[in-house]
Design goal:
This protein is mainly β and about 1000 residues long. The radius of gyration is 31 Å and the shape is globular.
C-alpha cells in the first residue's frame, strides 16, 4: 500500500519538534538575531564583514532570509558538510526549490542534453536551467559545455572548497539581474580563509561504484589594505555501472495478472527466460541482441528470428551454426552491457583566486579581481545496436541467393514432423543486430576573470558618500567532445547494400571509400562477441571529434546612496548600466557534419553572437515606522530596460512590500515581471537531424481500434482528420523512421515573458530561538521558446479546421499518395525553435530554524520544504498537462537537519524527503498492457514516498576538523515500477523511476569522511 506523504511529513516534523523542546527547564535564552542594517549597500560587496546570515541576493538592501522582502533560501556549507554533500551540483540540485523537478546530472549517460554530456545544471521550480540564473559572488557566470546547445552554467566549474554559502532567490528577478532570472537566482558566495588550508574528503558506497572524492588546498592573507587568496581543487566521481546493482542490471517487465473482475493480483506475468527459468531481463536498448532476422515481410516464419547463440546440428537451418529461434528464446541481454554507466565518471581541476587592494594614494577606493580556471574531463560508456539492411544479393549475407535458394523444411520450426512444411525460397534481405560500443567523452576548459574598482565618492556635492562599483567580467569555455560513430558510406560499401531502398551496390565496389574491406556482420565473432578484426575496427569504427567555444563579456557600473530623508527614514537608491556580449561557435565532428554517421543524428556548425545594453535602478522607501502594528513598513521598487541586438527592447519591473508588525510577525510580498531573451543556440542552431519511430509520433496509428480497456480512446476530431487523409481505422503505420530537423529561430523568436508573485509571513518569537517563514509563490511564463519536436503532428490532427487551419499541418510531411509503397508514412518533421509553450507553477515554501543553548550543549534545527500545488504546462492551446504528482515531479520535497553541539563535538541527523508520485491517467497511462505472451496484464507506475537519512559526527581541534558519517543510512531504494507502453508512462532506470531525486537510492548506503587542516 502506498504510504501517506502527509503522515510521514507530520510524524517526522513532530519528532524533531519534540526533540527541540524536550528540556525547556535547562534552556538559556538564545541570543536573538540582530536586525539587519537597512542602509543602501553595494550589491557586490561580499566581504567577510558580512555575517553568514546576511543576504544580498535579489536586492541591493542587506537583509537576512527572515527579514528580506523577497523570499531567499540560504544554505550554509556547515549544513552541507554535515550531510556529506561535496559539490555545488549536489547541494543546489538537492535544495527544496530545485528538488521538486528532475535535474540534469551524471545519470544522463547516452542522453542528448543541452550543454552536452557530462554537464550538471540547475533548474528551479521545474522551469528549466535556461530560466535559472547562476551568480558567483553576485556576478553572472558564463555558460560552459559542448555542442551547439550550450546555454546554462555547468555547476562543475564552481570552486567548491572556498564556497561559504549558497543563496537562492525564489522568485523572478530580471529587473535586478536581467535575462534568465525567470525562475529565480542562485548566488554562490566564496570566502577567504587566513593562512594555509588543506583538506580531503571521500564518499564510498557500501556495494561499490559511484564513489566521489576531492583534495584541495588554499592560502589566504588579509591586512588593512590587502586581501588575497588562491585555492586549488581536484574532484573525482567514479562510475556506477548498471551491473553494480541488481535492479539496474536486470530490468524486468513487472507485469501482473488480473482477476476475474479485472483487478491486479500479486501474480507476475512476465516473460520467462528459458535459459534461467527466471523472469526475463531486458537490456537498456530494449532490443534483440546477438541475432539477425529477415527484413522481408514476405518471409512468413511466425515472427521467428535467426540467432547465433545455439548451434543446430539437426540441420533445421540452411546456414551452419545458425537456427531459427522463437520469441521465448530470444536473448534480450548481453554481459557487455553490464559495463554501461548508470552514473558516468567525471574529473575536475579548479583554481580560484580573489584579490582586493586599497591603494594608499587613493582614499576610499578598492581594486578587486577574481580568476577562475576549471577543467572537466568526463566520459560515458554505453553500447548500441548496429542493424543495417543487407541485400539478398550481397555475398556477406548468410542467407543470400546462393546459400538460401531452393527448398527448406519448416516442420521442426513449428513443432511439426519433418517434411510437413516445405517451401522453395530465394535468398532473404536480413538485418543483423550486433552490439557495439557507443562511448563518448568531453574535455572542457573554462576561464573566467573579473576586475573592477569600488568605493565611495568624496564628501560634498550631491553624490558625496555614495558608493560605486565598476567592473569587467569575461569568461570563455573551450570544449572538445568525442563520439563513437560508424561512417555510413564505409558500412554500406563493406556490406554491399545502400540503406535507402536496400539497394545492392556491390561489396567494396568502385565508389567505395579507400581501404574498403568486406564486412561480415554475421560471423560468430562479430555477431556474438563484438570481436571485430583489427582491420574492421580501423575501417568501420571511428571517433568523431567536435569543438565548442562560448565567450561572454560583461561591463557593469552601479552607484548606490541615500537620496533624501522622509519622515520614517531615508530613501535609498541604486542606479546602474551594463553591456553584455555573447558568442558561440560549435563545429561538430566531420562525420556528423557530413550526415555520414549510421543511425545517428547529424549536426552542422552553429555560430552566432548577440549583445544587450541595459539600464536599471532600484529604490527603497520607508513608508512607516514605530507605529501601532507597524514596526517597519518599506516599499522596494526596481526596473530595467534591456535592448537586444537580436530581439529588440524589453522592460521589467518588480515591487516589494515588507511589513514588520512587531519583532515577532512580519509580512512580505512581491510582484514583478521577468523575461528571457532567446539563447544563442535557439537563435543560431544549424540544422540538426534525428530520426523518430512512426509509432512514437503518429496519432493516426490504429485510431479506430479499441484499446486495452475495450474503448476507442482516440478523440473524434483526430479520427475524422485521419480518415480525411485516407487512412484506415486500423492503419498500422508505414515506412521507416521519420526525419526530424531542428534549427534556430533567428528573426522569428520573441523574448519569453513572465510574471511572479509571492506573499509570505515570517514568525520570530522573542526569546524562543525560533524563526519560521511560509511563502506562497506563483510564476507564469508565456511564449516559452521550445523545439516542439513531433508535437506539431498531434496538434495538426486535433485541429477542427485541420489542414486549412493553424498551419501546424504544414510543419510535417505525410505520404498521401495511395499508390505509393509507403502510403501514410510521415517522412519529415520541422522542429525548429518557436514561441509556443506557456507554463504556470505555484505552491508554498517553508523555512524554519530553531536554535537553543542548553546547559549540556547547543541544539539547532534547519528545515527547508517546498510544496508544489500545480505545475501546468501548455504546449499548445488545447494541449495542457498537469505535471505535479507525476514521476520526477513530486508535490512535496524537503530537507530537515538537526544538530547538537557540545564543546568540540557536533552530531547531525538529516532527513531528505520526496513525496510519492503516480502517472496513472496521464497521457494514456492506463495501468494495462496486453502482450501475446502475457495476455491482459496490469502495470504499475506509482512510486512510494522516498525518505532517506544522513548522519554524521564532527570533531574540532585548534587547527583541524574531522567529519565522519553516512548517507542513506537505512539503504533505502526507490519503488520498483513496471515497463509500460503508453506515452504517459514514467521513464525507468532499470526497474526504478528515472529522476534525479532518487540518485542516492540508486547508489545505496554511503560512508564519508572529511578532513580539514589549517597551518
Amino acid at each position: 500500500m502506498k504510504k501517506s506523504s502527509f503522515d510521514t511529513l507530520m510524524r517526522t516534523t513532530a519528532l524533531l519538534s519534540m526533540i527541540a523542546i524536550a528540556a525547556p527547564a535547562y534552556a538559556q535564552d538564545a541570543p536573538q538575531p540582530t536586525e539587519a542594517p537597512t542602509e543602501t549597500v553595494d550589491l557586490l560587496d561580499l566581504s567577510d564583514e558580512a555575517s553568514d546570515e546576511v543576504v544580498v541576493t535579489g536586492s541591493r538592501i542587506r537583509r537576512n532570509e527572515f527579514t528580506a522582502a523577497t523570499p531567499v533560501q540560504v544554505i550554509t556549507t556547515e549544513r552541507s558538510k554535515l550531510s556529506g554533500l561535496l559539490s555545488a551540483s549536489e547541494i543546489l540540485q538537492g535544495s527544496s526549490v530545485a528538488a521538486g523537478s528532475g535535474q540534469i546530472n551524471d545519470t544522463f549517460t547516452g542522453f542528448v542534453v543541452n550543454g552536452g554530456a557530462g554537464v550538471n545544471t540547475l533548474s528551479l521550480r521545474g522551469l528549466g536551467a535556461q530560466r535559472t540564473l547562476v551568480l558567483l559572488n553576485g556576478r553572472r557566470v558564463g555558460p560552459s559545455g559542448v555542442s551547439g546547445t550550450v546555454s546554462a552554467v555547468d555547476l562543475n566549474i564552481i570552486p567548491n572548497s572556498v564556497v561559504n554559502r549558497f543563496e537562492i532567490l525564489k522568485d523572478g528577478a530580471s529587473s535586478i539581474y536581467g535575462s534568465d532570472a525567470v525562475a529565480g537566482v542562485a548566488n554562490i558566495i566564496t570566502s577567504i580563509d587566513e593562512g594555509f588550508n588543506f583538506g580531503a574528503t571521500a564518499n564510498v558506497s557500501e556495494d561499490g561504484g559511484g564513489e566521489s572524492s576531492a583534495l584541495w588546498g588554499s592560502w589566504g592573507k588579509t591586512t588593512d589594505l590587502l586581501a588575497f587568496s588562491i585555492s586549488g581543487e581536484y574532484q573525482r566521481r567514479e562510475e556506477l555501472n548498471i551491473g553494480d546493482r541488481p535492479n539496474l542490471a536486470c530490468p524486468e517487465d513487472r507485469y501482473f495478472a488480473l482477476d476475474d473482475q479485472g483487478n491486479p493480483t500479486n501474480e507476475r506475468t512476465d516473460a520467462i527466460d528459458p535459459r534461467t527459468g527466471e523472469f526475463k531481463c531486458y537490456n537498456s536498448l530494449e532490443g534483440y541482441l546477438q541475432t539477425f532476422f529477415p527484413a522481408s515481410a514476405a518471409f512468413g516464419v511466425g515472427g521467428s528470428f535467426f540467432g547465433s547463440r545455439t548451434y543446430d546440428p539437426a540441420g533445421t537451418s540452411p546456414v551452419e551454426g545458425f537456427r531459427f529461434i522463437p520469441f521465448q528464446e530470444r536473448s534480450f541481454d548481453d554481459p557487455r552491457q553490464l559495463e554501461t554507466d548508470a552514473i558516468s565518471p567525471t574529473e575536475t581541476f579548479t583554481i580560484f583566486s580573489e584579490l582586493s587592494h586599497s591603494p594608499t594614494q587613493f582614499e576610499n577606493l578598492e581594486v578587486y579581481a577574481e580568476v577562475l580556471f576549471n577543467r572537466r574531463e568526463s566520459r560515458q560508456e554505453n553500447y548500441r545496436q548496429l542493424f543495417p539492411f543487407i541485400s539478398a544479393e550481397s555475398p556477406v549475407n548468410p542467407l543470400n541467393n546462393t546459400v538460401f535458394g531452393g527448398p527448406f523444411d519448416y516442420g521442426p520450426l513449428f513443432g511439426l514432423a519433418p517434411g510437413q512444411f516445405i517451401a522453395d525460397l530465394q535468398g532473404l534481405d536480413v538485418r543483423p543486430i550486433v552490439l557495439i560500443p557507443f562511448n563518448s567523452r568531453q574535455e572542457v576548459n573554462y576561464l573566467r576573470g573579473v576586475g573592477g574598482i569600488r568605493g565611495t565618492f568624496a564628501d560634498g556635492g550631491f553624490m558625496g558618500g555614495w558608493g560605486y562599483d565598476l567592473n569587467l567580467a569575461h569568461s570563455t569555455s573551450s570544449g572538445t567532445y568525442y563520439q563513437d560513430v560508424v561512417p555510413q558510406d564505409r558500412l554500406e560499401a563493406g556490406i554491399g547494400t545502400r540503406q535507402n531502398g536496400i539497394e545492392f551496390i556491390g561489396v567494396c565496389g568502385p565508389t567505395a571509400p579507400a581501404g574498403c574491406i568486406p564486412f561480415n556482420l554475421a560471423a560468430p565473432g562479430q555477431l556474438q562477441d563484438g570481436a571485430f578484426t583489427a582491420a574492421e575496427q580501423d575501417y568501420f569504427f571511428q571517433e568523431d571529434k567536435g569543438e565548442t567555444s562560448f565567450n561572454q563579456t560583461i561591463i557593469e557600473g552601479v552607484v548606490t546612496g541615500d537620496l533624501f530623508d522622509v519622515p520614517y527614514g531615508t530613501v535609498g537608491i541604486a542606479l546602474g548600466a551594463s553591456a553584455r556580449f555573447d558568442k558561440i561557435d560549435d563545429i561538430p565532428g566531420a562525420t556528423s557534419r557530413a550526415a555520414n554517421s549510421f543511425q545517428l543524428a547529424s549536426a552542422n556548425r552553429t555560430k552566432g553572437d548577440d549583445s544587450v545594453y541595459e539600464i536599471f535602478g532600484e529604490v527603497e522607501v520607508p513608508l512607516l515606522a514605530k507605529k501601532p502594528l507597524v514596526e517597519e513598513l518599506t516599499l522596494n521598487a526596481s526596473g530595467r530596460i534591456s535592448d537586444y541586438k537580436s530581439v529588440g527592447t524589453a522592460e521589467t519591473y518588480k515591487l516589494g512590500l515588507n511589513w514588520a508588525v512587531n519583532n515577532t510577525i512580519r509580512f512580505r510580498g512581491t510582484h514583478g515581471t521577468s523575461f528571457r531573451a532567446p539563447a544563442l543556440y535557439e537563435l543560431f542552431l544549424a540544422e540538426q537531424t534525428a530520426f523518430l519511430q512512426q509509432t512514437s509520433i503518429d496519432p493516426c496509428i490504429r485510431y479506430g481500434v479499441a484499446g486495452e480497456d475495450g474503448q476507442i480512446n482516440t478523440p473524434q476530431t483526430v479520427q475524422d482528420n485521419c480518415a480525411a487523409d485516407g487512412l484506415a481505422p486500423d492503419f498500422a503505420g508505414a515506412g521507416s523512421s521519420a526525419r526530424l530537423t531542428r534549427s534556430g529561430g533567428l528573426g522569428n523568436l520573441r523574448p519569453e515573458t513572465s510574471e511572479a508573485n509571492s506573499v509570505g509571513v515570517i514568525l520570530t518569537p522573542e526569546g524562543t530561538g525560533l524563526s519560521l517563514s511560509v511563502d506562497y509563490f506563483e510564476i507564469e511564463v508565456d511564449d516559452q521558446i521550445t523545439s516542439t519536436a513531433a508535437g506539431v503532428i498531434g496538434q495538426c490532427y486535433r485541429d477542427p479546421e485541420f489542414r486549412s487551419g493553424s498551419g501546424f499541418c504544414d510543419l510535417f510531411t505525410r505520404v498521401l499518395d495511395p499508390n505509393a509503397q509507403n502510403f501514410g508514412s510521415i517522412t519529415d518533421v520541422n522542429a525548429d525553435y518557436r514561441n509556443i509553450v506557456s507554463q504556470k507553477t505555484k505552491g508554498l515554501d517553508f523555512t524554519g530554524r530553531y536554535e537553543k543553548e542548553f546547559t549540556f550543549g547547543d541544539f539547532a534545527i534547519d528545515a527547508q520544504w517546498t510544496y508544489t500545488d500545480s505545475d501546468r504546462l501548455e504546449l499548445f492551446a488545447d494541449d495542457v498537462d498537469q505535471l505535479t504528482g507525476l514521476a520526477g515531479e513530486p508535490d512535496w520535497v524537503g530537507t530537515t537537519q538537526a544538530r547538537f553541539t557540545k564543546g568540540d563535538w557536533t552530531g547531525a541527523l538529516t532527513m531528505n524527503y520526496v513525496s510519492g508520485t503516480d502517472n496513472f491517467g496521464f497521457d494514456g497511462e492506463d495501468g494495462r498492457i496486453d502482450t501475446f505472451y502475457s495476455g491482459p496484464s496490469a502495470t504499475f507506475s506509482d512510486v512510494d514516498e522516498f525518505v532517506t537519512f544522513d548522519a554524521s559526527i564532527r570533531k574540532e581541534w585548534d587547527t583541524m576538523t574531522l567529519i565522519v558519517g553516512s548517507q542513506n543510512i537505512f539503504n533505502e531504494e526507490p519503488s520498483l515500477i513496471s515497463d509500460a507502453d503508453d506515452l504517459g508512462s514514467p521513464s525507468r532506470f532499470g526497474n526504478y523511476p528515472f529522476s534525479s531525486q532518487y540518485i542516492n537510492g540508486y547508489i545505496g548506503r554511503q560512508f564519508f569522511v572529511r578532513l580539514d587542516k589549517e597551518f
